[in-house]
Amino acid sequence: MDSNIYNPTIPFIGPLPQPLQPGNLVRISGVVGSSATCFSISLQNGSNSYQRNDISLHLSPVFTSPPRVVRTYLENQQWGPEESHGPYFPFAVDQEFEILILVESDQFKIAVNGQHFTEFQYKLPLQSISHIAVDGDVTINSIKFEGLTSSPMA
């Protein structure tokens, strides 16, 4: 069974095929919109977007000055402090991208277009993540889950 997601309508919220664990990889391929100011990818613990569920990783490229890639989390309806340092800004409008999120024992390791970009330490339990959400001016071609076991989510 193919648990990958292809060409989702944005905004998108969908369940993960099974709980994430160290060694898993989430591969997101897409194209930034031509008039993008920002877009976001969230790993969260439910399917709500209005009364938001807790979000373990909120990754948001922001194109307004100064361009930056914001990383944060949401717990009990409260956003945590933003991290936005990075060696470069890896996105451009109208350009394809590939984001890799590697799940490690204590952090997410994030690469963009084949280059390591940053890490984000877990603030919430990894086991609480059940959904992925995408929003903003972006087209997603695919979301692929790699390194998962063959048994379906219980």
Would you write up a description of this structure?
This is Galectin. Residues 12-146 form the Galectin domain. The radius of gyration is 14 Å and the shape is globular. The model has no long low-confidence stretch (mean pLDDT 94). It starts with a strand and ends in an 8-residue tail after the last strand. It has one domain: Jelly Rolls. With 154 residues, the protein is an all-beta fold. It has a 6-stranded antiparallel sheet, with no helix packed on it. The protein has no helices and 12 strands.
Blueprint of the fold:
Elements: E1 5-6, E2 12-15, E3 25-32, E4 39-44, E5 55-62, E6 68-75, E7 78-79, E8 96-103, E9 107-112, E10 115-121, E11 131-136, E12 138-146
Antiparallel strand pairs: 1-12, 2-11, 3-8, 3-12, 4-5, 4-11, 5-6, 6-7, 8-9, 9-10
